[in-house]
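User: For my dataset I need records formatted as: sequence, then structure tokens, nothing else. Please produce one.
Assistant:
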Amino acid sequence: MEVLYPTFHPSARTLDIKIILNRCHPIRGFVYDDSFFGDGQAIDVLVRARKRSRPVCSGCKRKGPTYDTAREARGFNFIPLWGFTVILWYCMRRVDCRQCGVTVEAVPWATGKERACLVYQYFLAFWAKRLAWTDVARVFHTSWGVVFRAVEHVVSWGLEHRNLDGIKAIGIDEIAVWSGHRYLTVVYQLDAGVRRLLWVGHGRTKGTCRAFFVWFGQARRTALEFVSSDMWRSCIDVVAHWAPQAVHVLDRFHIVKRLNEAVDQVRRSESKTLGKAGFRPIKNTRWCLLKRLDKLAPSQLDKLVDLLGYNLRTVRAYLHKEAFEAFWRYRSATWAGWFLDAWCKRVMRSRLPPLKAIARSLRNHRELILNWFRAKKEISQAVVEAMNANAKLAIRKARGFRAYHNVRIALFHQLGHLPEPSFSTHQFW
């Protein structure tokens, strides 16, 4: 039987590791020399400088004469090939630089004293977005520290090359990352089609919020049109001082959340009181009161109908909460303000302290709440909360971080949508 093989080009050569490396990862001023199997599952590739080439100073990046050459080669980890670890070995030269003195040369495939090639760092950072960093280290037979330094390098490069022009809307919030009520302040860009992490600050103070606006710069601050946040007083004061022209929006997410918490507080208090008297109509009704009507299961809906037949404080709190849902259906800020004033007036006469506290808070933040309508309902803190969920997922995927710097690197890597260096020869993934 005749065996058919692919048609070879007349000028094609037999492939070896040197030809593959020259095709996918050429190094200007250097050549790949011999290659052979090293210890274990490793391929060792020797690299040497071209004849009459001059080394580059690692300080000023200028070429200079060779002072001497190391006798012992330094190994640089390359992208694994077919399950084999690939190591580039090169004898470093020292440069007799006029400006910096005698320094070790800078090589184009690595930075500083890093023992991993740049392309290998980009490769690890790519997989670190999709897997836990420990899993990446285990799969590619390296250490967690190598993966972290790879991600750190890619994030640093992206932060230096990202474009911050044209930012019109931002969202400010905080996330808890450690035990003991320790927080990070995060700022996101909320423009249509561009939603990314802009800034991370340590702590949840007025100074932290102020530090963002100082970093953001005056030109970008004056270009802001919308700022979204929760009812954190320090943030409201800082935004009013540093971006007074922006429409500061307090949207429905946190208001609805606080209303639900107030209803649940009334339910728990009344359930405890009635339980002592042996009367338990409110038992197992928490989610019947907190979920939307269209989300209730048939059994929950039947239980809610039975509960509404009682004259209880919990029922009155629930009815006030449901009545407030009409507020979000308004289109005009004027009519929405009229409804808000009327609702707060009724609640202040309800003799329900948790709801009265909510009504006082809504009155104090009246104009900021109505800004949600002035922004045409396009700026929502719900987007910020969704990105916070992704941030917590990134932290949880890494089993947590002890240092603030590591958390910051992980968050920017996952949520920053940072630019990445492009390859002119070959894409490795």
